[in-house]
Design a protein that fits this description.
The complex is a heterodimer of chains A (446) and B (115). With 446 residues, chain A is mainly α. Chain A has 16 helices and two strands. Chain A has one domain: Orthogonal Bundle (Ammonium transporter fold). Chain B is α+β, with helices and mostly antiparallel strands. Helices cover 19% and strands 30% of the residues of chain B. In chain B, the strands form two sheets. Chain B has a four-stranded antiparallel sheet, with helices on one face. A two-stranded antiparallel ribbon of chain B has the order 3-4. The chains are: A mainly alpha (446), B alpha+beta (115). At the A-B interface, α10, α11 and α12 of A face β3 of B.
């Protein structure tokens, strides 16, 4: 019994320890009461950021159903549970150290320090640096939802064969050592933002980052047993894709950090690119496989959402058409030909769609960005500024290399801790729902 | 006693059931099955990956009857399930000898227990 009691005991000790420093929250409330001369809060901006925080959170259950519908029945719950558990684990990590590492006071452009650990000093008054018209807690909560969905995206690469214990450990390590630093580089006062790299809502931080981790995971974990893996419920996948599209308005337009014209531009560019990409992939299927497929359509829509993410606040709605079109064609090629050629088993194309779409989006931002759309942004190559294009390429390459190498190392470390990343072949054949969770998604006999 | 197994197109089930009813054959077990005959089915494509096993949805009927009812059962199924447009894929009927049968409630066996 001892080995089973030990984790429980550790958990209780950890909880008691975590409860102790609950004083700062009290301080923050007092500070707010005192701070009459604090920066002004704009109620419209605050309402939009709070609503956006909800919208972005909904993307993770949306992703869960998008991914869940595409796996086989025997693995449905494992995917849903991993996505939902990402919501639980990353939230804890975020309020303890994640937010401070990402957005806390800068150390040499590389990482935030731990001044804001346990949300110390993060209260209802606005921050001096981020979203200065909304409560700091609202900004923190909004950013948390990004930190949740990013590791959840990686699940798509190792679905149907990954140990649940390995998932939990890898998610915490990856969030701390990959997501938090890269978020800091781009948004938290780190070197990439200082270089002038444009990433409006997380193309680099979220999609390239998760996409490269996904590629590393597919390579390290290896192929699934068997040769054919048909989706068990496309209607659920379509429902999930719809939830993603809806939630993405918070992701992209919320990243304007205000209820303003820029947010409106981001909503429209997001919508247009997604619509174009969904239609384009369906037409690619129609040409290549003789029939338009629903899975192609929703995959295209997600590729469009991914690609427009870094660009949505810097490009015009009409140029969003080209970004959407490019994302569908490029991701279609990557999924149809590149994956087959190299033979890695990226179960749900987390790299093929999020990695490749994210890379295209980051580079496309360097092509079509315009200061006419966003005076705080920069002009891209097509608006007479080739330098911006090179900055985008550089930021993309650095993120790709860092995310891939670190993810590879963290997967190996996780594997050592859990005695291998994969379930046994027998467990894989039976399915993860029963072998990892002692449950099944659907009763077959009442 | 015979055991009749028929595999038919799903959209023909209603017609077959109605004809069986008219011929006073009430005992039938129906299941959803996957299968393929000479038309070979249609292979699904998911994100450009073509599935190997190309099967189509079919309905399987199982009917246990006394010998004299066999022609009526065959008639009902053929009449109900034949699409009549000359395309392959209407299905098949198999007739097997049935060794025994028992009604669980009463313990009756053989010809008595059927129907």
């Amino acid at each position: 019994m001892k080995p089973r009691i030990l984790p429980l005991f550790t958990l209780i000790v950890a909880l008691v320890w975590l409860m102790a420093p609950s004083v700062p929250a009290q301080d923050a409330v007092n500070a707010a009461a005192d701070a009459v001369s604090a920066p002004a809060i704009d109620t419209g901006d605050t309402a939009w950021i709070l609503a956006s925080a909800g919208l972005v959170l909904l993307m993770t259950p949306g992703l869960a159903f998008f991914y869940g519908g595409l796996v086989r029945r025997k693995n449905m719950l494992s995917v849903l549970m991993q996505c939902f558990m990402a919501m639980c684990l990353v939230t804890i990590q975020w309020v303890v150290i994640g937010y401070s590492l990402s957005f806390g006071p800068d150390i040499k452009g590389l990482i935030g320090n731990l001044d804001w650990a346990f949300l110390k000093g993060v209260g209802p008054e606005p921050s001096d640096v981020y979203a200065t018209t909304v409560p700091h807690t609202a900004f923190m909560a909004f950013q948390l939802k990004f930190a949740i969905i990013t590791p959840a995206l990686i699940i798509g690469a190792f679905a149907e064969r990954f140990k649940f214990s390995a998932f939990c450990i890898f998610t915490l390590l990856w969030t701390t050592l990959v997501y938090d630093p890269v978020a800091h580089w781009v948004w938290g006062g780190g070197f990439m933002g200082a270089d002038g790299a444009l990433d409006f809502a997380g193309g680099t931080v979220v999609h390239i980052n998760a996409g490269m981790a996904a590629l590393a995971a597919a390579l390290v974990v290896g192929k699934r047993v068997g040769s054919t893996y048909p989706p068990h419920s496309l209607p659920l996948a379509i429902l999930g894709a719809g939830m993603l599209w809806f939630g993405w308005f918070g992701f992209n337009a919320g990243s304007a950090l205000g209820a303003n014209g820029l947010a409106a531009n981001a909503i429209v560019t997001t919508h247009v690119a997604t619509a174009v990409a969904g239609a384009t992939w369906a037409f690619c299927d129609w040409i290549w496989h003789k029939k338009p497929t629903t899975l192609g359509m929703i995959t295209g829509a997600v590729a469009g959402l991914v690609a427009i993410t870094p660009a949505c606040g810097f490009v015009s709605p009409i140029n969003a058409i080209w970004i959407g079109l490019g994302s569908a064609v490029i991701c279609f090629i990557s999924v149809t030909f590149v994956k087959v050629k190299f033979g890695y088993d990226d179960t749900l194309d987390a790299f093929g769609v999020h990695g490749v779409g994210g890379i295209w989006g980051a580079i496309a931002t360097g092509l079509w960005a315009s200061t006419a759309v966003n005076p705080a942004g920069r002009d891209g190559l097509f608006y007479g500024n080739p330098e911006q294009f090179m900055i985008q390429v550089k930021a993309t390459l650095i993120t790709m290399v860092y995310a891939f190498v670190m993810s590879w190392i963290l997967l190996k470390v996780t594997g050592l801790l859990t005695g291998g990343l994969r379930v046994t072949e027998q467990e894989e054949r039976i399915g993860l729902d029963l072998t990892q969770h002692k449950e099944t998604a659907y009763a077959t006999i009442d | 006693m015979k055991y009749v197994i028929a595999v038919i197109q799903p959209d023909r089930l209603e017609a077959v059931m109605q004809l069986l009813e008219e011929k006073e054959i009430h005992l039938v077990t129906v299941s959803n099955v996957m299968g393929r005959g000479r038309q070979k089915g249609i292979a699904a494509v998911y994100r450009s990956v073509k599935e190997a096993g190309s099967l189509l949805k079919k309905i399987k009927l199982e009917i246990a009857v006394n010998d004299e009812f066999v022609p009526a059962v065959k008639d009902a199924i053929v009449q109900g399930a034949r699409s009549g447009d000359g395309h392959i894929g209407d299905g098949k009927i198999f007739v097997l000898d049935l060794e025994d049968c028992m009604r669980i409630r009463t313990g009756e066996t053989g010809a008595e227990a059927i129907g």
